[in-house]
Amino acid sequence: MTQRVFSAMQPTSDSLQLGNYLGALLQWVELQEGKEAIYSVVDLHALTVSPDPAVLQRRTRVTAAQFLAAGVDPERSLLFVQSHVHEHAELAWILSTFTGMGEAGRMTQFKDKSAQVGESGTNVGLFTYPILMAADILLYDTNLVPVGEDQRQHLELSRDLAQRLNSRFGEGTVVVPEPYIVKDTGKIFDLQEPTKKMSKSFSSPRGIIEILEDPKVIAKNIKSATTDSETVIAFDPENKAGVSNLLTIYAAFTGRAIPDIVADYEGKMYGHLKTDLADIVVEALSPVRDRTLEWLESPDKLDEVLAQGAAKASAIAKVTLARIYDSVGLLPKV
Question: What is the pTM of this model?
Answer without folding.
Answer: 0.92
